[in-house]
Specification:
19% helix, SH3 type barrels, two-stranded antiparallel ribbon, 5-stranded antiparallel beta sheet, rod-shaped, alpha+beta, 118 residues
């Protein structure tokens, strides 16, 4: 069946949308006398199929947990006592915190027994 001028114009608009928006879904458009299947890729992946979202990664080390808590209020338990304040920096083997009183505290990661977000 031949396309009308209007159907051709609609098809061109759909192709432009597919190139400019980056949707990642398959879409079917049914017009009287015309059946169009369009794969629209949003995000520039060029993929026409849908891909399931990647699940968030679970921290595997204490350092990974601490990295996720930077700039947060935390309570750190060590064999020497508890430290409460804002976690500023996570280095390879220690963290830097600012206690609520304004004191800077360095804590070795291998001495941390428990971390609690406040």
């Amino acid at each position: 069946m031949a396309q009308t001028e209007q159907q051709t114009a609609i098809l061109e608009l759909i192709k432009q949308l597919a190139g400019n928006t980056g949707f990642n879904t398959d879409t079917s458009l049914n017009l009287p006398g015309l059946d169009i299947d369009v794969g629209i890729g949003i995000g520039g992946s060029g993929s026409t199929g849908t891909t399931p979202p990647t699940p968030p990664t679970t921290p595997t080390t204490l350092r990974d947990v601490l990295l996720g808590l930077v700039n947060e209020q935390v309570q750190i338990t060590t064999p020497f006592g508890m430290v409460t304040g804002t976690l500023l920096v996570v280095k390879n083997d220690y963290i830097v915190m600012i206690e609520n009183a304004g004191d800077q505290v360095l804590v070795r990661i291998d001495k941390i027994e428990l971390v609690s977000e406040l």
